[in-house]
Amino acid sequence: MKFYTVTLFPEIIRKYCEFGIISRACKEGKIKVDTVDLRNFGLGKHKQVDDLPYGGGVGLIFMVEPILNALSSIKKEKKSKVIITSASGRKWDQKFVEDLSGENQLIIICGRYEGYDERINNVVDYEICMGDFILTGGELCALSIIDSVSRLVPGVLKKDETHDIESFKNGLLEYPQYTRPQEYHGWKVPDVLLSGHHGEIQKWRDKQAREKTKKNRPDLLSSDK
Length: 225
Known about the structure:
The protein is of the alpha/beta class.
C-alpha cells in the first residue's frame, strides 16, 4: 500500500512515520509513505497556494492550480483514490477504513485555512473529516487515515497485534481488559477473568462490551437489531 500526502508541512507526516508499527511497516516494505510539499507548486515568486474567496468572507482558501499541479507530480496507480481532508467531509469510520484498505494507493490532500476551491473536487474521490470538530490543518486527519488503513494491510500487524477483536469490529466498543496485579489500591480484577471458564468469560465480555458502548457511544446501538 502506498500513501502520498500533499501538505504544507511534510515534516509532520514524516516524523510520525518514524515511530511504532508504522515505522516498522515502512522499513519492512509493507507500506510506503511519501509526502509532496505543496509550497513547491505555489504560484509566483512567493509560492502562493491560497487566496481570498470570491464573494467575500473571512480567511483564505487553497487555490486550484497548485493543488492540481502537486497531484500531477504523483504517478497514479490503477487502484488509487484521492482524498481531501475537510470539516465538511464524510465522517471517517472503521467501515470506511476497511473499504479503502483494498486500494493500492491513497493520495491525501491535507486541507488548511478556511477551505479550498470547490473545483478541486473534480479530481477528488472523497472528502473526509475525523468528526464533528475543527482542526487547524488536515495533517492529523491524514495521519489517522494512514495509521488506520495500514493496520489492515497484510503483514503490518504481527500475530500478537491482531485486529480481529477490537472496537467497532462487531458494531460495539471493545470489552474492558485487565492485567497484573490482580489487586491494586483495592481495585480488583473481576473474578470471572480468573476462573479459566472460557464460556463464562466470553459472556462477561459480550455483556461488558454492550454496556460500555451504551455508556460511551449509544449512537452505535441506535440501529442495532
